[in-house]
């Protein structure tokens, strides 16, 4: 959280923050794993095998970061369903950061970009800001950034940066988070 908050308060643009976070994700993997996965696994059955593998790997390896998660089933655009979902009951990362902009700019957008670009698998992440749950859907393309409803949500009241901004009278009337990096 310290690293993330430093990243968020350096006055960088949202896309710079997203790119830094994608670099962090890439660095977690051995060098040849990502291109090999994309080349060998992703093409099998239109990516379904890759989507199911990634859901399992995410549920197993990310509990330290997000808390309890389990694999579930998602409906694919072709009408079939596939066990390529991960349901995070109450995301610790979101709960600790307390800020919608941190969730969106350092987690949702970079993670979606990472799986698409580095592994060839589309991913939609649907955080719920009322109960801090999050549904991952591997194999589903995210909507564009101007139509994704999650990006239109107002700042969370518990976000300390909102209060800080009010005190500084910086954009005091800005309630939309995506454009206001800090909340
Ligand atoms: C978010 O969670 C709340 C509480 O569990 C629920 O009532 C609401 O329908 C959920 N929102 C979405 C978009 O799923």
Verbal overview:
This protein is of the alpha+beta class and 183 residues long. The protein has one domain (2-141): Muramoyl-pentapeptide Carboxypeptidase, domain 2 (2-Layer Sandwich). Helix content is 46%, strand content 14%. The chain is built from 8 helices and 4 strands; from the N terminus they run αααααββααββα. The chain has helices at residues 2-9, 14-27, 33-41, 48-61, 63-66, 92-97, 100-119, 160-168, and strands at residues 69-75, 81-88, 123-127, 134-138. Strands 1-2-4-3 form a 4-stranded antiparallel β-sheet. Strand 1 (69-75) and strand 2 form a beta hairpin. Helix 2 (14-27) crosses helix 7. The structure holds 2-acetamido-2-deoxy-beta-D-glucopyranose (NAG). 2-acetamido-2-deoxy-beta-D-glucopyranose (NAG) binds at residues 128, 130-131. Residues 64-145 form the Beta-carotene isomerase D27-like C-terminal domain. Pfam families: D27-like_C (PF13225). This is Beta-carotene isomerase D27-like C-terminal domain-containing protein.
